[in-house]
Design a protein that fits this description.
The protein is α/β, with parallel strands linked by helices and about 675 residues long. About 30% of the residues lie in helices and about 20% in strands. The chain folds into 3 domains: about 300 residues, TIM Barrel (Alpha-Beta Barrel); about 200 residues, Class I glutamine amidotransferase (GATase) domain (Rossmann fold); about 55 residues, Immunoglobulin-like. The strands form 6 sheets. A 9-stranded parallel beta sheet has the order 5-4-3-2-1-9-8-7-6. The longest helix has 29 residues. The protein is globular and about 75 Å long.
């Protein structure tokens, strides 16, 4: 892997000089220096300007922009510019346009109007990469390469004939022959057996539920097609350049159909884009989950926050502005959870186009603004935090996450539409956040031996090898919690027979004979005082200890929460959807049994995360409340000067980072 670390934490934004008169560029560089910016992403949406006609390239404006940035001491993450094809491509090759499942063509006028399987798009895009990389491989400003942009954000699925043929090729490679395909797809049901590969299509609009394994395989194929574009561009860059290569992932609970765990090997550094959801009353929890998941995709290594916003975005129904101090809290929360770079979309707010109301480092009102003053303050913060670069985040808890399990769990014709994959993921992660405990969000195939506790929310689809790995982890002394609708099917979306939860039945010492989903608005009580809704099941404890049972509802007296000792460890099962208070109590119980302690004891609403490098550690304390917070932090220095002897005081809405005394990590 090519090294991507600089001497400081990276700080900057997407920079689009082509949107502005050249007389603006010198002011941009001066303001960047004033703000402490040291890295900008350039050229992301510039294909139509770089190649105004097939094979005719115009690089003069980009030459001048890169030279100016270099002279100003600003490094560049140079894009391959393939993120959105120019109008001439669709005009000359309309077969490159993507189609929805119902056959609707998606036309140019927005962005990403291309079929990811199109050989014409692949040929033209790689020709552009060759030209850009060949010209700027040795430019002194370029320290990093940026493949495309948010691959698959708007065109992840295409159902055109070109995609259909590519899907058949993908299936041939996966299954080898039609007998294996028919077995995997269960085509004996509903007279779906295929006798010729030409009969196989993507799951286009159908009279009723499409074959679920066909749907699942098409989702796998679609993620792989987007990954293939990343790999094709990466191959060109690897051949022509020496700088590290990345692309911006979109890891979070809003982007579902790209399997980033499988993509991580194709980049030199994991980068992520993250935006708050305006309707979320506690957006700091979603931010923490996305950052912890990004770190998990990166294998625990530091990663780069490629995009977030200084204030409001433009693409939500109600675009709420960030309150004073929120920009700083959001940014430093990402750093706390492993980011070694903080970038935004974008440098200067656009005058025209679909994102003209999206916030930027330099707003429409100019630098004499709340936003730009906060941008400058953050730049100073990140300079003071340079020593944190390269350190890793302390995490004794893992949460298992699998994109394929997400896809499978939310296919149609399931027991309850109210069972969604992200629901228990966010609930359990939120309980850990409130307890002051940091978790790595990792793929089920990850080595779990370093963790004291593993949480397994709604892992509907699981492979035998991953289920066996969890069993070995528990036998070796680990603690694990598995929630309902986990272990139900294999990788082909075939039910694991013999009783639920299938793959985990023996590990947990339970057997469910029937699901009893609840009606909308219906709830049940447990005999330990907890309240639950959405889901119950007819569960038998077959070796497990019953810790709580239903006190009412359709299954009074039936177990709802169990625990089984397995080897040197313990396996817990939760067969219902606890409310937040019940989830918090359960997680606290699990943490105590597993011996997991918070990074520091903090008041409610105060986020605490520790990063560590060798025997050095740094404690990030982020006060999300409107009152002063006090924490016991003995003998630690504040980064930027000062000491906190015995007690750290963090003002309302502020952030403190302390360099802790040298010490060995607790056993």
């Amino acid at each position: 892997m090519r090294n991507w670390h600089g001497e400081r934490i990276w700080y900057g934004a997407d920079y689009n000089p082509e949107q502005w008169p050249e007389e603006t560029w010198a002011e941009d560089v001066e303001l960047m220096r004033r703000a402490g910016v040291n890295l900008v992403s350039v050229g992301i949406f510039s294909w139509a300007l770089l190649e105004p006609a097939p094979g005719r390239f115009e690089f003069g404006w980009l030459d001048r922009a890169l030279d100016l940035l270099h002279d100003g001491g600003i490094n560049v993450d140079l894009a391959t510019a393939t993120a959105s094809p120019p109008p001439w491509l669709a005009h000359r090759h309309p077969e490159t346009l993507p189609r929805r499942a119902d056959g609707t063509i998606l036309w140019p006028g927005g962005r990403q109007a291309y079929c990811p399987s199109s050989p014409v798009f692949r040929e033209r895009s790689l020709a552009l990469v060759e030209a850009v990389a060949g010209r700027y491989a040795d430019h002194p400003a370029v320290v990093m390469w940026h493949v495309s942009n948010e691959l698959g954000c708007h065109n992840v699925h295409c159902y055109c004939d070109v995609s259909a043929e590519a899907f058949r090729r993908w299936l041939r490679e996966r299954y080898g022959d039609l007998d294996a395909l028919n077995a995997a797809w269960g085509t004996a049901f509903w007279s779906q057996r295929y006798h010729d590969w030409a009969e196989v299509n993507p799951p286009r609009s159908a009279p009723t539920f499409a074959n679920p394994t066909q749907q699942l395989d098409f989702l796998r194929f679609s993620s792989d097609e987007q990954r293939a574009q990343l790999r094709a561009e990466r191959e060109v860059l690897t051949r022509l350049t020496t700088q590290p290569v990345t692309t911006n992932f979109m890891i979070g609970t809003g982007i579902k159909y790209l399997d980033y765990h499988s993509w991580a090997a194709d980049v030199d550094l994991v980068s992520n884009d993250h935006y708050l959801t305006a309707a979320d009353p506690q957006p700091q929890l979603g931010l923490a989950l996305a950052a912890d998941h990004t770190r998990g995709v990166a294998g625990g290594d530091p990663w780069l926050l490629m995009e977030h916003s200084t204030s409001a975005v433009n693409w939500q129904p109600r675009n709420v502005a960030k309150t004073p101090g929120q920009l700083r809290r959001n940014s430093l929360a990402h750093v706390a959870r492993g980011a070694d770079g903080v970038l935004f979309f974008q440098w200067r707010a656009s005058r025209a186009g679909a994102e003209k109301f999206h916030s930027a480092l330099v707003p429409h009102a100019g630098p004499d603004t709340k936003v730009f003053r906060e941008v400058c303050r953050l730049g100073a913060d990140l300079q003071a935090l340079a020593e944190v670069r390269g350190s890793r985040v302390d995490a004794d808890v893992a949460i298992l996450f699998d994109y394929e399990a997400w896809w499978g769990a939310e296919l149609d014709s399931h027991p309850s539409v109210d069972v969604t994959y992200a629901d228990r993921l966010t609930a359990l992660h939120g309980a850990l956040w409130r307890a002051g405990v940091t978790a790595d969000v990792v793929h089920p195939s990850t080595d779990l031996s370093r963790y004291r506790l593993v949480l397994v929310p709604t892992l509907y689809l699981v492979r035998d090898a991953d289920a066996d790995a969890l069993r070995r982890y528990v036998e070796a002394g680990g603690s694990a919690l598995v929630t309902y609708f986990s272990g139900i099917v294999d990788e082909h979306d075939h039910i694991r027979l013999g009783g639920y939860p299938g793959a985990f039945r023996d590990l947990l010492g339970v057997r469910t004979e029937e699901f009893f989903p609840l009606r909308a608005g219906e709830s049940v009580r447990l005999d330990d005082g907890a309240t639950a809704d959405v889901w119950t099941e007819w569960l038998h404890a077959e070796g497990a200890e019953v810790l709580a049972a239903y006190a009412d509802g359709p299954l009074p007296g039936v177990p709802a929460l169990t625990r089984q000792a397995v080897g040197a460890g313990a396996a817990w099962y939760l067969g219902t959807r606890l409310d937040d208070a019940g989830t918090d109590r359960l997680v606290a119980r699990l943490l105590t049994e597993a011996g997991v302690r918070p990074a520091a004891t903090a008041p409610e609403g105060v986020e605490v995360v520790r990063r560590r490098s060798g025997d050095r550690s740094w404690l990030f304390v982020i006060n999300h409340t409107d009152t002063e917070a006090r924490l016991a932090v003995a003998g630690a220095e504040l980064l930027g000067g000062g000491r906190c002897d015995g007690e750290l005081v963090v003002s309302a809405g502020e952030v403190a980072v302390v360099r802790e005394e040298t010490r060995a990590r607790p056993a």
